[in-house]
């Protein structure tokens, strides 16, 4: 039997009316891997996360978590509360009338854990996220960064199998974003939890991901490490989307090509455009040079 990835989406399709949002999307995440789905607004990132969590059902395809088919877009359907997933929403979705402590404790209370166990776990996770001193505050009394930590704490306190984060840093003050990102990344690596994050921010994807998946027009058009995506974009869309490449139409003479067959073996994107990034360009007394 073939070894299965920890999380697997197989040929997932989803349409709203005539709008085919996801078109046979497949992806895998290994245990403890940090996956980032990168795509512009409206490309279907949240839809993928919601299909993994079970809030939305796909029209076609299968979702497999830890060796178990949780949705086969037919009769098999495990509801969200039985999937053992932590979810951090873009707007955090904290309960406004509850203290930070009660927000974090909520999933444990739902599971009817003993009071002492709840206190212990909330304190532990609050310690890790450095929010111990604000546990009696209401969300409105917390900074954006603190609210986000409370949301992360609530998502991981029940020690779920999988952590989903939907644009979790977009409401954080840009000046703090890099350090908050780094802390969250360190935390999820420390806990060793398999994570899928959605973002439209290429820099964020680059700095956090073990593996990036580029979502465009309903398809995953490239999967790779940040370095692979940056250095070897599959087409001009990815090249430009990830770190703004200068792309010029070009007539490319390839004298070493001997036959039409050899020419055809090149991908179309290798013919007709030349791309280079600003950091690979220098200006000297003879003009601009791309290296
Ligand atoms: N409940 C819905 N009904 C109709 N269209 C929807 C619904 N949810 C999402 N969409 C459409 O699906 C597309 C993808 O949405 P979404 O997954 O939220 O994208 P992203 O998170 O990448 O911004 C968008 O065109 C959006 O308008
Ligand atoms: Mg979204």
TrEMBL record:
InterPro entries: AAA+_ATPase, ABC_transporter-like_ATP-bd, ABC_transporter-like_CS, ABC_transpr_FbpC, ABC_transpr_MalK/UgpC-like, P-loop_NTPase
Span of domain ABC transporter: 7-242
Record PROSITE patterns: ABC_TRANSPORTER_1, ABC_TRANSPORTER_2
SMART domains associated with the record: AAA
Record bears the keyword Transferase: no
Source organism superkingdom: Archaea
Molecular functions (GO terms): ABC-type ferric iron transporter activity; ATP binding; ATP hydrolysis activity
CDD domains from the UniProt entry: ABC_Carb_Solutes_like
Keyword terms of this UniProt record: ATP-binding, Cell membrane, Membrane, Nucleotide-binding, Translocase, Transport
One of the record's GO cellular component terms: ATP-binding cassette (ABC) transporter complex, substrate-binding subunit-containing
Protein's name in the database: ABC transporter domain-containing protein
Species annotation: Thermofilum adornatum
Phylogenetic classification of the source organism: Archaea, Thermoproteota, Thermoprotei, Thermofilales, Thermofilaceae
């Amino acid at each position: 039997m073939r070894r299965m990835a920890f999380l697997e989406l197989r040929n997932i399709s989803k349409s709203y009316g005539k709008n085919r949002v996801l078109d046979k999307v497949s992806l895998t995440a290994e245990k403890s891997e940090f996956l980032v789905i990168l795509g512009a607004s409206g490309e279907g990132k949240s839809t993928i996360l919601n299909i993994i969590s079970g809030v939305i059902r796909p029209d076609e395809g299968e979702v497999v978590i830890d060796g178990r088919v949780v949705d086969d877009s037919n009769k098999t359907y495990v509801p969200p509360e039985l999937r053992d997933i932590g979810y951090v929403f873009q707007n955090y979705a904290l309960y406004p009338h509850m203290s930070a402590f009660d927000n974090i404790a909520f999933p444990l209370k739902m599971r009817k854990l003993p009071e002492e166990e709840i206190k212990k776990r909330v304190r532990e996770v609050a310690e890790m996220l450095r929010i111990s001193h604000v546990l009696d505050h209401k969300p409105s009394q917390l900074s954006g960064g603190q609210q986000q930590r409370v949301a992360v704490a609530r998502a991981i306190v029940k020690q779920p199998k999988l952590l989903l984060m939907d644009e979790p840093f977009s409401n954080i003050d840009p000046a703090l974003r890099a350090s908050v990102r780094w802390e969250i990344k360190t935390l999820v690596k420390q806990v060793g939890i398999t994570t899928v994050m959605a973002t439209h921010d290429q820099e964020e994807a680059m700095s956090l991901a073990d593996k990036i998946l580029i979502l465009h027009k309903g398809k995953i058009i490239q999967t790779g490490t940040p370095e692979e995506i940056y250095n070897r974009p599959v087409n001009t869309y990815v090249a430009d989307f990830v770190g703004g490449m200068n792309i010029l139409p070009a007539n490319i003479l390839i004298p070493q090509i001997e036959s039409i067959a050899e020419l055809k073996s090149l991908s179309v994107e290798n013919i007709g455009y030349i791309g280079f990034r600003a950091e690979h360009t220098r200006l000297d007394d003879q003009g601009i040079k791309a290296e």
